[in-house]
């Protein structure tokens, strides 16, 4: 399936920086996108751990993520769709803000925009953030591999299976002993289930993005449109009626603005564009194998920034994850 927006349309409106980046060789652009994505996702986990001691509730942060991204992407989408409609009168959807058709915007937006944010931040309410650092990025390769079989017709070769096994084992080791006690009691298991659900949703978005041949910028604009119009009104109504609690109006303004800037501008806009670009070059399975570096790197970041201990689980886990990535990528190139 051909991309829904052609390159000439992109070049007509795309800011100078993005236009220049697109002149890079595909291999260089793919590698750059991978590095940026891994760095932002690593920072996301470390900041999420630190935010557990903050003032905002999980859904408050999800709201700031969506609103922060929408401030940038909804005006961008309006300009994008206007350019598209100069060539196709009925292009776009969501009141002229999404460059993609309704059905693709909804399918990708529900998984990559709405449900991922709700599940991910809700998970931190029930389970320690260390669980999230393993179960979200650490299971992406597994979900993407399974979803790619029916949706993309891909096969799991022996090297890729070995790579997935190494990644899974490394992710569990990086989590340390805390995961072994996840079901001992209380509600920790709910958080773990939410983290794995978040990983499943993002993997679904990545595979759908590949299937529809989506370009990075229209895809991230579309999923933000879906998340904004579905989450923000419902959340505002539930908070106003007292069904949900919110600390948005009592938390320090600096904390609220920081979450909007990082979670929206960084985690959604920047990493959303680079992740989708990475998928276009490496494919969804190899991309999620690359992002499997995030659990180990975020654990190292926690050692440096948050003073968490460095033990043998982390070291062996990093070796297993790295080995798994090498096995998976090597097979993909040969196949």
- Global mean pLDDT: 80
Secondary-structure element string: HHHHHHHHHHHHHH
The N- to C-terminal Cα distance equals 21 Å
Q: Biggest sheet: strands, sense, closure?
A: none
* Helix/strand/pairing category: mainly alpha
Number of strands: 0
Oligomer: single chain
What is the gyration radius calculated from CA atoms? 20 Å
* Number of spatially distinct domains: 1
Counted by DSSP, the helix tally is 14
Residues in helix, %: over 70%
Strand content: under 5%
Overview of the molecule:
This protein has 335 residues and is mainly alpha-helical. The protein has one domain. It is 75% helix and 0% strand. It contains 14 helices and no strands. The protein is globular, with a radius of gyration of 20 Å. It starts with 6 loop residues before the first helix and ends with a helix. Residues 1-14 and 331-335 have low confidence and may be disordered.
Task: Name the features.
mainly alpha; disordered N terminus
Give me the secondary-structure topology.
Layout lengths: L6 H7 L2 H6 L4 H26 L6 H28 L16 H25 L2 H7 L4 H13 L5 H18 L12 H25 L3 H25 L12 H30 L1 H7 L3 H12 L6 H23 L1
Helix pairs in contact: 1-4, 3-6, 3-11, 3-13, 4-5, 4-10, 4-11, 5-9, 5-10, 6-8, 7-9, 7-12, 8-14, 10-11, 11-12, 12-14, 13-14
Short overview:
With 335 residues, the protein is mainly alpha-helical. Helices cover 75% and strands 0% of the residues. The protein contains 14 helices and no strands.
């Amino acid at each position: 399936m051909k991309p829904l927006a052609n390159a000439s349309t992109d070049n007509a409106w795309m800011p100078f920086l993005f236009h220049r980046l697109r002149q890079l060789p595909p291999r260089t652009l793919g590698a750059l996108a991978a590095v940026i994505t891994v760095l932002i996702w690593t920072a996301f986990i470390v900041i999420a751990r630190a935010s557990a001691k903050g003032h905002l509730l999980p859904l408050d942060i999800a709201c700031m993520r969506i609103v922060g991204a929408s401030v940038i992407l909804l005006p961008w989408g309006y300009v994008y769709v206007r350019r598209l409609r100069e060539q196709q009168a009925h292009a776009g959807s969501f009141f002229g803000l999404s460059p993609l058709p309704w059905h693709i915007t909804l399918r990708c937006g529900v998984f990559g925009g709405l449900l991922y944010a709700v599940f991910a931040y809700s998970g931190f309410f029930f389970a320690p953030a260390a669980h999230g650092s393993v179960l979200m990025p650490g299971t992406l390769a597994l979900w993407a591999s399974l979803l790619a079989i029916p949706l993309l017709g891909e096969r799991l070769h022996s090297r890729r299976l070995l790579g997935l096994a190494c990644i899974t084992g490394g992710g569990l080791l990086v989590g340390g002993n805390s995961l072994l006690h996840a079901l001992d009691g209380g509600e920790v298991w709910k958080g773990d289930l939410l983290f794995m659900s978040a990983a499943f949703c993002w993997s679904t978005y990545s595979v759908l993005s590949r299937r529809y041949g989506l370009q990075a910028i229209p895809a991230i604009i579309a999923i933000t449109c879906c998340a904004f119009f579905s989450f923000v009104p419902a959340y505002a109504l539930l908070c106003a009626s007292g069904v949900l609690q919110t600390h948005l109006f009592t938390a320090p303004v600096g904390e609220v603005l920081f979450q909007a800037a990082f979670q929206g501008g960084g985690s959604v806009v920047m990493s959303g564009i680079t992740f989708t670009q990475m998928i276009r070059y490496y494919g969804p399975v190899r991309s999620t194998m690359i992002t499997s570096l995030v659990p180990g790197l975020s654990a190292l970041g926690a050692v440096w920034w948050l003073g968490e201990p460095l033990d043998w689980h982390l070291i062996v886990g990093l070796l297993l994850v790295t080995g798994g990535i090498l096995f998976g990528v090597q097979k993909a190139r040969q196949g």
